[in-house]
Amino acid sequence: MNKNFRFSTFNFQLKKLPFLLLGLLVTVMAIATFVEKSKGTDFAYQYIYGSWWFTFLWAILSGLSIVMILKRKLHKNIPLCLLHLSFVVILIGAFFTKISSVNGYVVLEKNQACQSLQTQKEGITHLPFEICLDSFYVAFYPGTDSPADYVSHIHIKDEKANVNGVVSMNHIFSYRGYRFYQTSFEDDFQTSVLSVNRDVWGIPITYSGYALFMLSGLLCLLAPKGNFRRLISHPLLKKVSVILLFLAPLTLFANTLTKDSLTTNREQAKAFGNLWMLNNGRITSVAVFAHDFTLKLTGKPSFKYLDANQFLMGFLFFPEKWQQVALFEIEDPILKKELNATTEKAALVDFYNADGTYKLAKYRNPNSKSAQQKEVEKLNEKVQLINMLHNGNLLQIYPQKVSGQLRWLTPTQTLSSTIADSNVWFIRYSLLEYYQALKKNNHPKALEILNSIKDFQTANAKEVLPSEFHQKAELFYLKANITSWLFKINLTIGILCLLSIFVPKIQKLKILNRLFRTILLLSFLALTLSIVLRTYLSGYLPLSNGYETMMIIAWCAMLVSLIFARKVTEILPFGFLLSGCSLLVAHLGMMNPEITPLVPVLSSPLLSIHVSLIMLSYTLLGFIALNSIISIAQILFSKDKQKILLLLERNKIYSTICLYPALFLLGAGIFVGAIWANISWGRYWGWDPKEVWALITFLIYSFALHEKIIKPFKNIFFFHTFGIIAFLSVLMTYFGVNFFLGGMHSYAGEIHFGSTTLILVLSFVLLTAFLIAGYVKFKRIISSS
Prior knowledge:
- By secondary structure, the chain is of the alpha+beta class.
- The chain has 27 helices and 14 strands.
- The strands form four sheets. An eight-stranded antiparallel sheet has the order 5-4-3-2-1-8-7-6, with helices on one face. Strands 9-10 form a two-stranded antiparallel ribbon.
- α22 (about 605-635) runs antiparallel to α23 and α22 (about 605-635) packs across α27.
- The longest helix is centred in the C-terminal third of the chain and has 41 residues, at about 640-680.
- It starts with a helix and ends with a helix.
């Protein structure tokens, strides 16, 4: 009896050991990202990611996983067995990559043979062949100076053959197991730097693991006797299963001016806004630039009674008047005194002393991160933007072929001697003539000059100019500004919808439920229109920056809610609140709303797949978190003890059902991203903070699917608490890395603390109090049941 007890205890501890080890690895990786932030990438790689003990921990985990597969006889459950084996295969592939791969770079000078590979491990090594650069060039987006690709033409010589090849972004050239990637180049275009990778065993083994994961993950979702199908057929859910199965495979003002007339009339401004220009690397109308300019200076798309076009023309053609307009909000008391901002706003003239010296110059300190320094940099950026406009450096409105390539020129820049004299004169003086016509209030003459500039643009750049429909679509997109008002609607309705859940009489009103569903559908269609327009205008799926991914998360949240809403009314507030919060984050300016050309490395279909999978996964995990928050709120406010326990159990099933596809999508997204990175940079995993935290998130949530071994997950309250706390890893992956840790995947610069720290502390205190209060009430319910 005692022997059997000891064996049973040992067997139980053996089952828990892989998860204890996994928890240790999660902790180590989380700490490592902060160590990298503090000590640098090389330090983190040398002492953590690249260390023998870190590799040993993963090796032990692989061994324990194999033991558990055998002991638990998972071979009887083919999908589950293959799923766990896929991770072992991936780790084996990573091990082979670590011990056998060759990584380095070659510096190629035009027409000079090179056989030296520079590596971090061994220094300089020799390639078994010679490689030579024939030519290098930058391919541009049509009619712009924005790089679309970097291309190296090379040829290779060895004893067997002479081979020509092309290397560019997202296009690998392979020869005898060596793969070449475009990395960088010198400004003279005579030197190209290529990354070189040789990984004969690691890549195929790892890719096999990725494929096995995706296959087994689908099988787990679709297997008739699997846990996922069992859950969606649970009696508590009634007829909701058909809908859940569908989810499994899833992604104005008046026209008059005031008497002081700071600018021209709206009709004239609109005509000026219809001109084309090169703006942020794209060919857009001047109206788009005016919108960005106004938004940058005022935080709004218009200024009082003036639209964006009038605001821009005021600064451009009537600068002496606009120097006196108080535009700049000043918060720091020292800066207020320096700039004479008695009304908390300063005018442009206030930034300069009588002798013309710049007042903020003495306050600028790039090494400081104080609140005052942040405000100084923010103000300085606005002032310099105005100066650049006044200097004529921003108005690239004159297309002209120079040395066979189309360039967009400004009136003040040095012009090539190859440009015809008549064109030189037009570029230099047409805007001056326009200005003189405006000053004389000769509006017909002014419009005539604008038409001549438009004709000049058409004559010189007709083949690359967007269509009139494109121009109108972009102006509509800017004026509609859907995210700026949609988040208000979604958050407001979301709160009302959430409150209705706690009032049974209201919750039973079918007409109210239909109304909420209708509003959600209209909101979804409005955001869909915004995304479609942005896709049309940019020429790529809007997944390239933080602003765009916030839009996609909101879209996914509403889509999932609409799919579930008819059968599961409680999901409606999730869709409203999650989408509303996502759109609010986008609106707050934390992200970049401007449409810009894709940088070459992002011009890959794998990027769209990678981001779409991850965003849909985050959306589902967000639903789980909101479901858990509502569940604990129901504990606090419910009076029916028996009913609340059934409700909590049903909510747990909802969350678990969401968790299966969420983990599959997150894992698939990570692995597609790894393949994309391998194609772009020659490595499928680089321990970048974003990669690490995505993996941490995946591992943390995977614990919840093993409640047979990790017993606390059988407790309803623990499960819902986990659903809230685990979501912090998602927030860290998306926001913490982007704005604090940085790295290759960062959408923006580092976050500046101050009030942000206070908000985080208060949020943590409120969350803790909420969970403690819920736990106390839950214990009372259990003890009295």
